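Internal ticket #5521
Category: modeling
Description: The requester needs a full-assembly model to guide mutagenesis choices. All entity lines are attached below as received. Residue total reported by intake: 222.
Assigned to: D.W.
Attached entities:
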Amino acid sequence: DAGVIQSPRHEVTEMGQEVTLRCKPISGHNSLFWYRQTMMRGLELLIYFNNNVPIDDSGMPEDRFSAKMPNASFSTLKIQPSEPRDSAVYFCASGINEKLFFGSGTQLSVL
Amino acid sequence: AQSVSQHNHHVILSEAASLELGCNYSYGGTVNLFWYVQYPGQHLQLLLKYFSGDPLVKGIKGFEAEFIKSKFSFNLRKPSVQWSDTAEYFCAADSNYQLIWGAGTKLIIKP
């Protein structure tokens, strides 16, 4: 298994544009997590899914952020419209039995 | 299933005290081990890593870690801490191209 796959690795966009981050979890894992790493706050949990169902989205900063998991092998995190303060590294992780495996992250820069 | 455990979520020390942060991993095969540090307001940085060879690994800023295969441990040490070592420290293990993270230890150094 290639592990948790995130795309793109880097994204540079202008303020106001829509940004979509993608994640392919490890096959067989039943949990999927989206984290954001910022300079000020470190690693923050945004949302997590269990069996494709959003369980806790209390970490999502505001309505501009949305996440979906249409099936067990794919999830997206969308920011619309993006703002410069959204610049961060976004990590996806998948898990089973409370063990987490992280992707390599997407470095997002909003200009 | 692979996992990484860090024993302490919070550690508070005085300057000049010696430091040891525990890290245990559960995986019987070949594994690469890492310690990362996140200083307040900054991104994760690599402190040191172990791939093979000498089990005592020297890192930046006076840190070292010892790989003890029989104990599945990779503890981080520093003989004399400084106030500037205040940060969060993450242990991680890499096997089969999956990076597995510990939960992190917040280290606070009192001046």
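Resolution: model delivered.
Comment from assignee: The CA atoms of residues 71 and 109 of chain A lie 28 Å apart.
Ticket closed.
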